[in-house]
Design a protein that fits this description.
This is Siderophore-interacting protein. InterPro entries: FAD-bd_FR_type (IPR017927), FNR_nucleotide-bd (IPR039261), Riboflavin_synthase-like_b-brl (IPR017938), SIP_FAD-bd (IPR013113), SIP_fam (IPR039374), SIP_rossman_dom (IPR007037). Residues 15-118 form the FAD-binding FR-type domain. It comes from Glycomyces paridis. The protein has helices spanning 4-12, 42-45, 91-98, 133-142, 181-196, 209-222; strands at residues 16-29, 32-38, 53-60, 63-70, 72-75, 80-86, 104-109, 123-129, 148-154, 169-175, 201-205, 230-232. 32% of the residues are buried. The chain has a seven-stranded antiparallel sheet. The protein has a five-stranded parallel sheet with strand order 10-9-8-11-12, with helices on both faces. A hairpin with a 2-residue loop joins strand 3 (53-60) and strand 4 (63-70). The protein is globular. It folds into two domains: 4-109, Elongation Factor Tu (Ef-tu), domain 3; 123-232, Nucleotide-binding domain of ferredoxin-NADP reductase (FNR) module (Rossmann fold, 3-Layer(aba) Sandwich), CATH 3.40.50.80. It is of the alpha/beta class. Helix 5 (181-196) packs parallel to helix 6 (209-222).
Length: 238
């Protein structure tokens, strides 16, 4: 299966293609699955960085369908990593539910990157959900001594694999409300006071598209957080 017009555009942009092979699978919870892969040469060719992500290609009735996923625990020496899937309805999740050792999947790398934060953040302010949890964990791993406040939107009672330390990380679960309104409201309620007591804050938002757009506009326009201290990327659409 080719990658269609999207693949053609990525090729013109000099994106790099790889083939990953499944080596293991773990059902972490009913709604969360971890697959292990060999990297097809990816980690030998491209340096690992926090929140590193790849585009996986799935077969949608003969048509290419791509989704982005964060690498979990990439090991360049061994050429392996995991990918975690927040399971819902959809082609990508259908593939992840049944994938087993020996299965392969095409991948493309383009657009991933992470610039070191300078100055180092006095506190991280993170907004995420199950879809972005691997990236949230990667960001926390990259700043092991930095305190963080994490607003995390939930849709069930699953015990997800957070890498939070209660001594440094303030995890604030927010049950998902209609259109994500509860998450936006909670961040708007909490954030101004937290910013007043923080030197060199850094805010990172990766949630549903509408919520992400709303919080990005709020942080930049109403709170005045500089674009160099802010990152926002929608991870899914409702």
């Amino acid at each position: 299966m080719g990658h269609g017009w999207e693949g053609a555009v990525l090729k013109l942009l000099r994106a790099k293609d790889f083939k990953f092979t499944v080596t293991g699978a773990e059902q972490v919870t009913d709604h969360y699955r971890r697959l292990s892969f060999t990297d097809g040469g990816l980690l030998a060719e491209l340096p690992v960085h926090p929140t590193m992500w790849v585009r996986l290609w799935f077969d949608d009735g003969g048509k290419p369908h791509q989704r982005g996923y964060t690498l979990v625990d990439p090991d360049a020496d061994k050429g392996v990593f995991d990918i975690e899937f927040a399971l819902h309805q959809g082609i990508a999740c259908d593939w992840a539910r049944t994938a087993e050792p020996g299965d392969t999947i095409a991948a493309t790398v383009y657009g991933t990157g992470f610039a070191p934060l300078d100055p180092a953040p006095g506190r991280l302010f993170i907004v995420g959900d199950a879809a972005s949890l691997p990236a949230v964990n990667s960001l926390l791993d990259a700043h092991p001594e930095t305190p963080a406040t994490i607003w995390f939107e939930t849709t069930d009672d699953d015990a997800l694999p957070f890498r939070t330390d209660p001594a440094r990380h303030d995890l604030r679960p927010v049950p998902r409300g209609p259109d994500g309104d509860a998450l936006v409201a909670k961040v708007r309620e909490d954030l101004p006071e937290l910013l007043e007591s923080t030197t060199d804050p850094y805010m990172w938002v990766a949630a549903e598209a509408k919520s992400t757009r709303t919080l990005a506009a709020y942080a930049r326009k109403e709170l005045g957080i500089p674009k160099t201290r802010f990152h926002a990327l929608a991870y899914w659409r409702s």
